[in-house]
Write a structure and sequence with these properties.
By secondary structure, this protein is an alpha+beta fold. It folds into three domains: about 60 residues; about 230 residues, Beta-Lactamase; about 170 residues, Alpha-Beta Plaits. The protein is about 55% helix and about 20% strand. The strands form three sheets. The chain has a nine-stranded antiparallel sheet, sandwiched between helices. A five-stranded mixed sheet has the order 11-12-10-15-16, sandwiched between helices. It has a two-stranded antiparallel ribbon with strand order 13-14. Helix 1 packs antiparallel against helix 2 and helix 10 packs across helix 11.
Length: about 525
C-alpha cells in the first residue's frame, strides 16, 4: 500500500510538471505582452523545479531503501554472530563445568587411593566438595544396629578461615539422633548450643594451628572435635582461652540436619531439597555390595548459583554420588582396620597396635630427646571378681574401666588393652609428673565408680598403676616397658590401689653422675 501511494505521488508530480511545461510553451509562442513572457518563464522554472524535486525525492528514497536493506542484512549477520557468541559462551561454560567436575572426580579418586586413614580421607573429601562444589558442610551418617536408622558419625563445617570437624562415637551419634526427629521438619536440626569442647590441645602445623579436644553434648562426652585455624603465625599462637572462645563460636554454627537422610537410605537414591533460607541439601546413600551402610549429606549455599561458573545441583549430586562410592569403600576398609587394631570387648587398641605405636614414639624420643611416658594398669583382684561374680560381670568391669580411660586421657594419648585385665596408656610428649597426675586421676575415678553386675548387684573395684618415662640413653623399647612393669609390681606389693613411678636405683644415679663429671673433665682438658 505504501509503494502505491509513492507511485501515485510521483505520477501527480510528473503530470503537474508536464502541464506547467505545456502552459509555459503556449505562453512562450504567444508573446502579446511582457507579462505573458514573464509568466511563461515562471511556468518553465516551476516545471523544472517540480521535475527536479521528484527526481531528488525518488532517487534519494531508492538510495535510503538500498541502505536500509544493507542495514537489515548487516543486523541479521550481527544477530547471527551474537547467537554464535552466545553458543560459544555456553559451550565454554559447559566445558568449564565438565573440567571442574572431572577435576573433582580426580581429586576424590586420588584421596581414596592415597589416604589409609579414614579421618584423613574424609578431610580430603570435605576439602574437595568445598573448593570445587562450594559446599558449606558435610555430614556422614552410618547405620547403627542399636538405633532405628542412621546416626551421625562425622561432620565438617568448612570456610576459608577455619575448618571444624566432629568425630562422633556410636553412643554419641545415637544421643544426637534421639534429639533429631527425621519425621518432623521442625525437629530434624540439632540445637548446636548444647555442643561444647574440653581438654583442648594446640599443635602448630606450618601456617595452620590444629586444635583438638573432646566433644561434649549436654555435658556428656560424645567424641572428638578438631578445629583448623588457617593463616596463623606459628611463633605467636593464640592463648588457650582465646581458642576456647573461638571453638565455642565455631561449634555454635554447626548445622547437623537429618532431613532426607532416612528417605535417601530407604529409597537408595540421591535426594536434594531447597531450604527456605536459600540452602540446598543433597543426601546420597552409602552402600557396599548392595548393603546400605549409611548416608552422606552435603549442604550448599544457593547464592553461589548466581554465578554462571558454579555447579548446578545435578552436577553436585553426580559429584556426591561418585564420592559416596569411595566413602563407602573407605568405611569398609576402616572397619576392617579397626577390627585388626582394636580390642572388641573394651574398644581400646590391642597390644600389637600398642607396641607398633610405642616403637614409633620411642624412636622420635631417642632422636629428639622429647618426653615419652607409659602407664601400665592392673585391675586389683580381677580373678577373684570373675570367680565371685562371674565372667559376664568381669567383662562389664573391663568395659567400664576402659571407658574411664577413654574419657580421662588426652586426644593424643593411646589407651590400650595390654592383656587380660592389664591396660596401658601411651603418652607422647608426656612428662613424668604429668603422667603420674593423670594416673592418679584415673585411679580415683576407677575407685569411686559404682559398677553393676550382670545380675544388677553393685560392687566396687580398684586398680594399681605403674608409670615410667623415657630417659636419655635408653636403647631398647623393652626397657621402658619393663620399668613401667616394675613400678606396677611395686604398687601391688605395697598394698594395691596406688600409683608408683619407676625411679632408677641410687647406685645407678651415682654412676650416671660420675659419667657426666668425667665427660666434663675430659672436655675441659
Amino acid at each position: 500500500m505504501k509503494d502505491f501511494w509513492h507511485i501515485a505521488w510521483r505520477g501527480v508530480l510528473i503530470i503537474l510538471a508536464l502541464t506547467t511545461l505545456l502552459a509555459a510553451g503556449e505562453l512562450a509562442f504567444r508573446p502579446e505582452s511582457d507579462v505573458r513572457s514573464s509568466a511563461a518563464t515562471l511556468a518553465a522554472i516551476t516545471a523544472a523545479g517540480l521535475l527536479l524535486i521528484q527526481h531528488l525525492y525518488f532517487s534519494g528514497r531508492a538510495r535510503v531503501e538500498r541502505y536500509r536493506k544493507i542495514a537489515e542484512e548487516s543486523a541479521a549477520e550481527v544477530g547471527g554472530y551474537k547467537m554464535q557468541v552466545r553458543s560459544l559462551e555456553r559451550d565454554r561454560k559447559s566445558l568449564r563445568h565438565q573440567i571442574e567436575t572431572l577435576t573433582a572426580h580426580r581429586e576424590v579418586s586420588r584421596a581414596a587411593s592415597q589416604h589409609t586413614s579414614f579421618e584423613d580421607f574424609l578431610d580430603e573429601i570435605a576439602g574437595v566438595v568445598h573448593d570445587l562444589a562450594g559446599a558449606r558442610n558435610l555430614t556422614v551418617f552410618l547405620a547403627d544396629e542399636s538405633s532405628t536408622g542412621p546416626v551421625p558419625r562425622a561432620f565438617y563445617t568448612l570456610s576459608r578461615a577455619t575448618d571444624i570437624c566432629l568425630s562422633i562415637t556410636d553412643a554419641g551419634g545415637v544421643m544426637l539422633m534421639n534429639d533429631m526427629d527425621p519425621e518432623d521438619e521442625d525437629e530434624c536440626v540439632l540445637d548446636a548450643e548444647l555442643l561444647g569442647a574440653k581438654k583442648l590441645n594446640v599443635t602448630p602445623r606450618g601456617a595452620q594451628a590444629l586444635v583438638s579436644g573432646t566433644l561434649t553434648y549436654k555435658g556428656a562426652d560424645i567424641g572428638l572435635v578438631r578445629l583448623t585455624l588457617n593463616h596463623v603465625d606459628p611463633e605467636n599462637l593464640p592463648s588457650i582461652s582465646t581458642i576456647g572462645t573461638l571453638m565455642a563460636g565455631e561449634l555454635g554454627r554447626v548445622r547437623l540436619d537429618c532431613r532426607n537422610v532416612v528417605e535417601s537410605m530407604v529409597h537408595r537414591k540421591p535426594l536434594h531439597s531447597v531450604q527456605s533460607r536459600r540452602m540446598a541439601d543433597i543426601a546420597c546413600p552409602l552402600s557396599i555390595d548392595s548393603e546400605q551402610i549409611g548416608v552422606v549429606k552435603v549442604s550448599f549455599d544457593l547464592k553461589a548459583d548466581d554465578d554462571d561458573a558454579s555447579m548446578s545441583l545435578n552436577e553436585r549430586a553426580r559429584l556426591l554420588s561418585d564420592s559416596a562410592k569411595h566413602i563407602a569403600r573407605a568405611i569398609h576398609s576402616e572397619r576392617i582396620y579397626e577390627q585388626a587394631i582394636k580390642d572388641q570387648l573394651t574398644g581400646l587398641f590391642n597390644k600389637r597396635y600398642m607396641l607398633s605405636q610405642l616403637e614409633g614414639y620411642f624412636n622420635v624420643a631417642s632422636r629428639h630427646d622429647t618426653h615419652l611416658s607409659v602407664i601400665l594398669i592392673d585391675i586389683d583382684h580381677f580373678k577373684k571378681v570373675n570367680d565371685t561374680w562371674g565372667h559376664l560381670t568381669g567383662d562389664i568391669i573391663l568395659r567400664e574401666v576402659s571407658a574411664i580411660l577413654l574419657d580421662g586421657v588426652r586426644s593424643c594419648d593411646t589407651p590400650c588393652r595390654y592383656g587380660g585385665e592389664e591396660l596401658a596408656v601411651i603418652l607422647p610428649e608426656g612428662s613424668l609428673d604429668g603422667s603420674v597426675g593423670l594416673a592418679e586421676r584415673l585411679r580415683e575415678a576407677i575407685e569411686q565408680k559404682e559398677y553393676i553386675s550382670d545380675k544388677g548387684q553393685p560392687l566396687h573395684v580398684t586398680a594399681s598403676f605403674g608409670v615410667a618415662k623415657f630417659r636419655p640413653g635408653m636403647r631398647r623399647l623393652e626397657d621402658l616397658i619393663s620399668h613401667a612393669d616394675a613400678a606396677l609390681y611395686e604398687s601391688k606389693e605395697n598394698g594395691r590401689n596406688r600409683v608408683t613411678s619407676w625411679q632408677p636405683p641410687a647406685d645407678a644415679e651415682l654412676s650416671e653422675k660420675s659419667k657426666k663429671i668425667s665427660v666434663r673433665k675430659s672436655v675441659a682438658k
